[in-house]
Design a protein that fits this description.
alpha/beta, Rossmann fold, 2 domains, seven-stranded parallel β-sheet, five-stranded mixed β-sheet
Amino acid sequence: MADSRDPPQARFRVQVLNQIAARGLERLPNELYEIGKAFKEPDAILVRSADLHGSTIPGSVKAIARAGAGTNNIPVAAVSQRGVPVFNAPGANANAVKELVLAGMLMAARKLPAATRFVHSLDPGATDLDVRVEDGKRQFGGTELAGKTLGVIGLGRVGCLVAEAAIHLGMQVVGFDPEITVEAAWSLPSQVRRAGSVLDLTRRCDFITVHVPLLAATRHLIDDRQLASLQPGAVLLNFSRDAVVDVQAALSALESGRLACYVCDFPESAIIGHPGVIALPHLGASTLEAEENCAVMVADQLRDYLEHGNIRHSVNFPEATAPRESAFRVAIANANVPNMLGQISTAMADAGLNIHTMLNKSRGEMAYTLVDVDSPVPPAVIGAIAAIEGVLSVRYLPARA
């Protein structure tokens, strides 16, 4: 149980653990926010790649935001027990990843990395340079993308963009995603054909690209069984997470010729230097535009939460947003168990407070409530709510001048 009584005019302290695009930090105005790297008691943490699993997260932290999509570097389960939401930026770097996937397909299809290495190996002073170029280029004959079939596993924002771009390049596209959202389904081009399973997809495609989060269910989603089903000479692309693909299985498929090329954004030691692997140094979101988009998105989410308690794009809390209907708001995170709303309402009624509006949302074991009250809420009431069994955090959010 915890409560937080932010003085109305106190500046929020945001600890920034990585380089965050200035365009995002500018969304946190100086009069309301103090941004730094070494706060002892920050109100929020803003991070990109820094690993928080081995760090002590101060009890003052009310929210954690990652300027990117994945949150594997954040102990989400642990902070959830403290009522701390974790925000991310889904889709903000989608175009950057899409373009890198297309580049990966082209590099593999036209053997561009090997061809570039060959050119770099030539002696620029050789008198027979033209002859050597003509003789050498024969080993780099490639194939065109038009007319080939691309399989897209995971049809979120990135997967949909990749599918659409591939269609414009003249490819046939097969998709698989048992968890596809309504929003993604509306975004998916009508030309995309549906696969019944991952195995059904791998059997039908010349190129396969995976775009799923790393979960227990997706670890080694691509393994020996799927790779054995490939058409000889297929190309596998992984710009998702390293462990989504069983690397040893991919290496075996390369040796057998079932897989012509493995393109990934994760240079693991087992694949570095392998002639059939194109490994990039985690460049998926490394564009100026993507970094700015991610920073702006999470800064806006963080500000809306710290000032108003609204939750958008959290990986552990339900979506919960409501316009203020009074100057006095209380935000409560609690275990999703019966009679919580009744106890919260009773605590306010016993203090003579009138509830103007109440919003309650739940997600799995987590529930979240926003209560707008017609008059100031005394500290004793915040304390009474915090003392309710199952309440994880309480924040009193009077409107700021």
